């Protein structure tokens, strides 16, 4: 056989880990233990109050949580739900949690299917929830049966709830007991949204569709970010973090708004950069470089995740900016450029009004700066937009979309 098994390790890889002791602690999806969570005592208490009835098999209070990214909304919801599950078990009550990312499951059917698959234990229920092939109604029927068979209380966490296509699923989940869809169990909903400053129509409808408590998570200040990072410093080997590394990371992450996700990402990237450069200590330079990398990664993620229509609009502004760097452009002009691109892409063009809306959507705030002069009707005419990133960088990211790459721009 063609393996040279002479006891030597393959030199393609590295086998030492001089910087990290446990890098997993800095994974964003890692669920830290309660002793690593700082600065959210009050909020945890409020979530606990809403879920408390579940411990005794009673219906929890539905809850909506609002706050900017990285303020601990997902973390606190998951952490408190887990603690409720544990406490309920002592009482002989079976509480189960389903965590749904509505950014990925945007339709009613896929949300119901995903909850079903998360909660289902086929050995116990004898029910199968196939990945595809069932109508929405059948997925509901199976879900209700699963909930009745497998649990006394179900906590459904709907994260990024503003991404849902419509609010039907919320209405049905919240009325399942009332309408006798489930009879031996009960459902509590936690809805989470990042869109605190931009309550859109869906948000409003969703909020008014059933009774609930509301909770706002404010951004962290630099001190809280230091505490959060300090509590995960054992991700690194002893003595590897310079004294400046954590405070500088916290300060940089606090600049826009105190975002713990960004803080953790920067610190992790700083460690990776130090590893790559074979340095023994994580220094200020590593942290600055890591901030750049974190922001570039995020920017790429943001654009790559956008729908092709939004990318076409961004491409229109990018092409205009290439000809007149740092200039700003009225919606009309961007719209004309966009129409050409849309036709090259064989896409039905959106209305000018919709394009104006997309240019001003929250998601593009870090990429585009929009200024409106005058107000009232037809304000689109008076709005000008400026690309904040270098056109080269934006084009590079946009070209990762195969349809746009085919344009050869
Ligand atoms: N109070 C906190 N203590 C410790 N870690 C935190 C805290 N808040 C957030 N984090 C961490 O920061 C990251 C982002 O938090 P997350 O809950 O995903 O924010 P959000 O859902 O509000 O965007 C996660 O890795 C989380 O573990
Ligand atoms: Mg979240």
From TrEMBL:
<feature type="binding site">
    <location>
        <position position="232"/>
    </location>
    <ligand>
        <name>ATP</name>
    </ligand>
</feature>
<dbReference type="InterPro" id="IPR049945">
    <property type="entry name" value="AAA_22"/>
</dbReference>
<feature type="binding site">
    <location>
        <begin position="71"/>
        <end position="75"/>
    </location>
    <ligand>
        <name>ATP</name>
    </ligand>
</feature>
<dbReference type="InterPro" id="IPR050311">
    <property type="entry name" value="ORC1/CDC6"/>
</dbReference>
<comment type="similarity">
    <text>Belongs to the CDC6/cdc18 family.</text>
</comment>
<dbReference type="InterPro" id="IPR055237">
    <property type="entry name" value="Cdc6_lid"/>
</dbReference>
<dbReference type="InterPro" id="IPR036390">
    <property type="entry name" value="WH_DNA-bd_sf"/>
</dbReference>
<keyword id="KW-0547">Nucleotide-binding</keyword>
<dbReference type="GO" id="GO:0005524">
    <property type="term" value="F:ATP binding"/>
</dbReference>
<dbReference type="InterPro" id="IPR003593">
    <property type="entry name" value="AAA+_ATPase"/>
</dbReference>
<dbReference type="InterPro" id="IPR027417">
    <property type="entry name" value="P-loop_NTPase"/>
</dbReference>
<dbReference type="InterPro" id="IPR014277">
    <property type="entry name" value="Orc1/Cdc6_arc"/>
</dbReference>
<feature type="domain" description="Cdc6 C-terminal">
    <location>
        <begin position="314"/>
        <end position="398"/>
    </location>
</feature>
<keyword id="KW-0067">ATP-binding</keyword>
<comment type="function">
    <text>Involved in regulation of DNA replication.</text>
</comment>
<dbReference type="Pfam" id="PF13401">
    <property type="entry name" value="AAA_22"/>
</dbReference>
<dbReference type="Pfam" id="PF09079">
    <property type="entry name" value="WHD_Cdc6"/>
</dbReference>
<dbReference type="InterPro" id="IPR015163">
    <property type="entry name" value="Cdc6_C"/>
</dbReference>
<feature type="binding site">
    <location>
        <position position="220"/>
    </location>
    <ligand>
        <name>ATP</name>
    </ligand>
</feature>
<dbReference type="GO" id="GO:0006260">
    <property type="term" value="P:DNA replication"/>
</dbReference>
<keyword id="KW-0235">DNA replication</keyword>
<dbReference type="Pfam" id="PF22703">
    <property type="entry name" value="Cdc6_lid"/>
</dbReference>
<feature type="domain" description="AAA+ ATPase">
    <location>
        <begin position="59"/>
        <end position="221"/>
    </location>
</feature>
<dbReference type="InterPro" id="IPR036388">
    <property type="entry name" value="WH-like_DNA-bd_sf"/>
</dbReference>
<dbReference type="GO" id="GO:0016887">
    <property type="term" value="F:ATP hydrolysis activity"/>
</dbReference>
<protein>
    <recommendedName>
        <fullName>ORC1-type DNA replication protein</fullName>
    </recommendedName>
</protein>
């Amino acid at each position: 056989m063609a393996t040279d098994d002479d006891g030597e390790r393959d030199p393609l890889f590295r086998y030492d880990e001089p910087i990290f002791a446990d890098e997993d602690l800095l994974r964003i999806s890692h669920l830290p233990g309660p002793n690593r969570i700082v600065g959210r005592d009050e909020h945890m208490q409020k979530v606990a109050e809403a879920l408390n009835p579940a411990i005794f098999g009673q219906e929890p209070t539905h809850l909506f949580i609002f706050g900017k990214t990285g303020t601990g909304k997902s973390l606190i919801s998951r952490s408190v739900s887990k603690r409720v599950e544990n406490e309920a078990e002592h009482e002989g009550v079976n509480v189960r949690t389903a965590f749904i990312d509505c950014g990925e499951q945007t339709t009613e059917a896929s949300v119901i299917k995903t909850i079903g698959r998360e909660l289902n234990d086929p050995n116990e229920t004898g029910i199968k929830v196939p990945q595809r092939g069932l109508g929405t109604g059948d997925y509901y029927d199976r879900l209700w049966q699963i909930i009745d068979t497998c649990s006394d209380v179900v906590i459904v966490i709907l994260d990024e709830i503003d991404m849902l296509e419509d609010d039907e699923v919320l209405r049905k989940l919240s009325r399942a007991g009332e309408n006798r869809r489930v009879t031996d169990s009960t459902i509590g909903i936690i809805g989470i949204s990042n869109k605190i400053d931009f309550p859109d129509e869906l948000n409003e409808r969703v909020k008014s569709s059933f009774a609930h408590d509301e909770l706002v998570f404010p951004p962290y200040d630099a001190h809280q970010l230091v505490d959060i990072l300090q509590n995960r410093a054992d991700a690194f080997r002893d003595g590897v973090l310079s004294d400046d590394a954590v405070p500088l990371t916290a300060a940089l992450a606090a600049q826009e708004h105190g975002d713990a996700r960004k803080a953790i990402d920067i610190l992790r990237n700083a460690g990776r950069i130090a590893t790559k450069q074979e340095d023994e200590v994580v220094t200020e330079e590593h942290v600055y470089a890591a901030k750049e990398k974190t922001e570039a990664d995020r920017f790429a993620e943001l654009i790559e995740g956008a729908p092709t229509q939004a990318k076409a609009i961004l491409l229109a502004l990018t092409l205009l900016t290439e000809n007149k760097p740092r200039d700003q452009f009225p919606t009309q002009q961007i719209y004309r450029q966009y129409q050409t691109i849309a036709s090259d892409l064989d896409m039905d063009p959106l209305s000018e009004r919709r394009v104006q809306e997309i240019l001003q959507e929250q998601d593009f705030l870090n990429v585009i700066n929009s200024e409106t002069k005058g107000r009232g009707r037809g304000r689109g005419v008076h709005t000008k937009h400026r690309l904040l990133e270098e056109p080269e960088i934006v084009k590079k990211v946009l070209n990762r979309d195969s349809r746009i790459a085919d344009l050869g721009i």
